[in-house]
Amino acid sequence: MTIDELVAAAEAARDQAYAPYSGFRVGAALMTEEGRVYTGANVENASYGLTVCAERIAVFKAVTSGEREFKVIVLAGSGQGYIYPCGACLQVLAEFAPALKVIITDETRQHKEYNLNEMLPQHFVLPT
Ligand code: THU
Fold first, then answer.
1. Per-residue confidence band for 98, with pLDDT thresholds at 50, 70 and 90
2. Closest-lying ligand 1 atom to the alpha carbon of residue 44
3. Are 23 and 79 spatial neighbours (Cβ–Cβ below 8 Å)?
4. Which residue in 55, 69, 95, 118 is the catalytic one?
5. Ligand 1 binding residues, C-beta < 6 A
6. So what's the pLDDT on residue 105?
7. Looking at ligand 1, which residue's alpha carbon is closest to its atom 6?
8. Distance between Cα 64 and ligand 1 center (Å)
């Protein structure tokens, strides 16, 4: 899948967001090393702290489908400008792919590319 196709997948996923409280919809498209794509959107809750971000929905869908190796995640927010993954999502992504490519898009479909290891240089790992 091309980056443009992944951006389209993230935007389509964003349509499925459940965001009645913030009104801010986010879509994510996570591609495995083998090219399979798992999408997610944010799911909010009346008990606000229980909200789950789009990125974590995507990674949890993928992992519970048997996937462990990821190449890239694309994020699409519903506002203007770029949105960056929150710290909790970076930690969850780093569990599986500390060098994941992270692509963020704006409303005009321009995108910026980062590596997860520059966004979160260290992540928590249980000491042995
Ligand atoms: N949100 C995400 O889905 N991903 C992020 O990385 C940051 C924030 C969602 C959570 C909430 O539903 C809304 O954006 C506003 O915070």
1. very high
2. 12
3. no
4. 55
5. 19, 22, 24, 26, 42, 44, 51, 53-55, 85-86, 89
6. 96
7. 85
8. 21
**What is the spatial distance between Cα 120 and Cα 42, in angstroms, rounded to a whole number?**
21
User: Of 72, 88, 69, whose CA–CA distance to 2 is shortest?
Assistant: 72
Closest approach atom of ligand 1 to CA 84: 6
**71 membership: H or E segment, kind and range:** strand 70-77
Q: How confident is the model at residue 85 (pLDDT cuts 50, 70, 90)?
A: very high
pTM of the model: 0.97
Q: How much of the chain, in percent, has pLDDT values that exceed 70?
A: 100
Task: Give 84 Cα–ligand 1 centroid separation in angstroms.
Answer: 9
To the query of whether residue 69 is one of the catalytic residues in this protein, the response is no
pLDDT in tens, 62-76: 999 999 999 999 999
- In angstroms, the CA 119 to CA 88 distance is 12
CA 96 to each of CA 56, 110, 126: distance values in angstroms, whole numbers, following the listed order? 12, 27, 14
Closest CA to 94 of 67, 66, 124: 124
